[in-house]
Amino acid sequence: MLSDRAWKLKYTPDDGDLVELFYVPVLEDAERYDRLTGYFNAGALALAARGIEGLVRNAGRMRLVVGCTLEPSEIEAIERGEALRDLVERRLASLPLAPPDPASCEALELLAWMIARGHLEVKVAVPCDLDGRPIPSDGIFHEKAGIVADRTGDRLAWNGSLNETAAGWQRNWESINVYTSWGPEPGRVDDEEANFARIWANRSKRVIVLDVPDAARRDLMRFMPDSDTPARLKAPDPAPVRAAAEDAALPPKESERSPAETPEPLPASPPAGDLRSRVWAFIARAPPCPRAASGSARRPPRSRPGRTRSRRSSGSTTTGRPGC
């Protein structure tokens, strides 16, 4: 849960990879994730696929408000009586989804799957003046904040300079400030949550919030995966590789041994999952080399460069396993 982790008060790239340090861990515990951002791309969710798995596993939900900027000509059209919703739909439709590479296509697939399954809702925010009139592109919706809640009701909020983009999380110099509901300033979490709720419900004085137009949604749904799970949430199956490695490490079957090779009974093998221990156990139990004809004197073992008896025994236990 959120309160089980030690969160820093501030994160910057000097601390390391913000995705690994913060984004993935916070989403793994999330049952709800609310996000305000000036810019968004699906690559941000793809970066945090492990965290998204946690959100999905928790039957969680993400609500995203992203800025939408209108040009002066579009503002003039609104003043002439054209509906804002129609203009926003045309604006988004003029930016068709055309992923440049397979990784971008997988990111859009994840985004489409989350929306279709009810794990993600997206709205667009258009800045306006106090009279509710949209303003042109020199004024943009540029807030960056997030609130996460887990199933116990604990909450974590942050704000800073970081947009919900792959560049924001991993390439730019960005910083975020973190507050918790169980920490010394729970009121800051309450303020962030109230601010998000006001914007999401379209009750803010200086921004108009709209649902994503149907045309943009239909364009995104083209990327729905053919299977039940998008590629970014499919863990590679290590079983075939692991099985092959274990088979190679196992001693010959009893039926494959000659009578002279059959060793005396030994204690049970280590657990099957501990491949490293199994390999070393097999080495320790390997049958002896064929000896010279009976009656001949036993030869002392030949020393090999870098494999002296003293060096071999220095790192070993009495069972022949290395002391690691």
Notable features of this structure?
single chain, 324 residues, alpha+beta, Endonuclease, Chain A, 8-stranded mixed sheet, 12 helices, 8 strands, 14% strand, globular
What Rg, in angstroms, do the CA atoms define? 30 Å
Supply the CATH class of the largest domain: Alpha Beta
In spatial order, strands of the major sheet run 1-7-6-5-2-3-4-8
Structural class: alpha+beta
Q: Please give the alpha-carbon distance between the first and last residues.
A: 33 Å
Q: What fraction strand?
A: 5-15%
So, the CATH homologous superfamily of the largest domain?
Endonuclease Chain A
Number of helices: 12
Q: What characterizes the major β-sheet?
A: 8 strands, mixed
Task: Summarize the helices and strands and which ones pair or pack.
Layout: E1 10-11, H1 18-28, E2 32-37, H2 42-47, H3 49-57, E3 61-67, H4 72-79, H5 84-93, H6 102-116, E4 120-127, E5 145-149, E6 155-160, H7 166-170, E7 176-180, H8 186-200, E8 207-211, H9 214-221, H10 239-249, H11 275-285, H12 309-314
Parallel strand pairs: 2-3, 3-4
Antiparallel strand pairs: 1-7, 2-5, 4-8, 5-6, 6-7
